[in-house]
What we know:
Blueprint: H1 8-18, H2 22-31, H3 36-54, E1 61-68, E2 74-82, H4 85-88, H5 91-107, H6 113-117, H7 122-134, E3 139-147, E4 151-156, E5 163-170, H8 174-177, H9 180-195, H10 210-224, H11 231-249, H12 264-275, E6 280-288
Antiparallel strand pairs: 1-2, 2-3, 4-5, 5-6
Helix pairs in contact: 1-2, 2-3, 3-7, 5-7, 9-12, 10-11
Amino acid sequence: xxxxxxxxxxxxxxxxxxGAGMMDCKGALAxxxxxxxxxxxxxxxxxxxxxxxxxxxxxxxxxxxxWLSPDRSTGILVEVNCESDFVARTTDFQQLVKDVLAEIERxxxxxxxxxxxxxxxxxxxxxxxxxxxxxxxxxxxxxxRYSGRGYVGQYIHAVTGKLGVQVEIGGxxxxxxxxxxxxxxxxxxxxxxxxxxxxPQFLSRDQxxxxxxxxxxxxxxxxxESSGKPANVIEKIVEGKLGSFYQxxxxxxxxxxxxxxxxxxxxxxxxxxxLGAPITxxxxxxxxxxxxxx
Length: 294
């Protein structure tokens, strides 16, 4: 059987298609006797093997990627991790982030946690290829896709790209969505979620888990044990302290970062009145690189 001569042009073509190194491409083409599909398969297998070897290494760097539909009815926020900030800044890694966003958009409602983690699925296949090309462990620990329930706004930290927020606003009428005042309101809410210390965790008091509330109450009661105050007085103090707790973790209860004398709930109510629309915050998410692994 004749052996195909592997030319420099063939090696370059395979390298352009796969991103693998020159010698790896030459070796794969030689092994595949010049067949590009077989050579690509050989390289992918090697890429998957290297991905397995690197799988135990920490991925505390990376970027938050974002995508919005033109009409703002759908938005995607995704965290893509790698080992070093150096790799996070490469065009190859940034392309991976874009590719992952595109896969989530393409999957639509079928995109869920099981789909994300499927080793044969589109996201993990792209991640494995990027690991083989860039030589670092990588992962996509989480994403949020909002669609069909309102107007989606986003904020990505412009300097680092490591902090992102997605918020969905309900009750937005066609007359309101194009107004600058509304755009400023959405931006303010997104900045609130991104910048508040501590960051909000819940959209309402009802969403706070009962066990978390009881844990806080137990701490407050323990603080009052030696006060000598009657039980009914202690309970009133505990309820007062719980109000302060809600101001830390519940978004509408938080003081506005723009005007601490005003709560976020009051900011929303004022905007709804000014705009003449029943706008509400439907849901929100805040991603910071590395948090999912901590």
